[in-house]
Amino acid sequence: MTLLIHLGYLAYDEDECEVHIPNLDVAEAFRAAVRLAKWPNAENIIENRQDIRR
């Protein structure tokens, strides 16, 4: 995760102590990969997030 943050694929919010995907294109690719991999638990978490940054 540190490398992904360093490369800009992930961002770290120090106030919230959370990691998020700051780029909409990367976020959509991640969602597609989760669906393709058939990870229903991860897909449900993604789809049910109320505060997804768009």
Tell me briefly what this model is.
With 54 residues, the protein is mainly alpha-helical.
| Low-pLDDT windows of residues | none
Largest sheet: 2 strands, antiparallel
Helix content estimate: 40-55%
Distance between the termini: 21 Å
Q: How many DSSP H or I helices?
A: 3
What is the helix/strand order? Answer: HEEHH
What report would you give on this structure?
The chain is mostly helical. Strands 1-2 form a two-stranded antiparallel sheet. It contains three helices and two strands, in the order αββαα.
Please outline the helices and strands.
Layout: H1 2-7, E1 11-13, E2 18-20, H2 24-37, H3 40-48
Antiparallel strand pairs: 1-2
Notable traits:
two-stranded antiparallel ribbon; 54 residues; 11% strand; mainly alpha; single chain; 54% helix
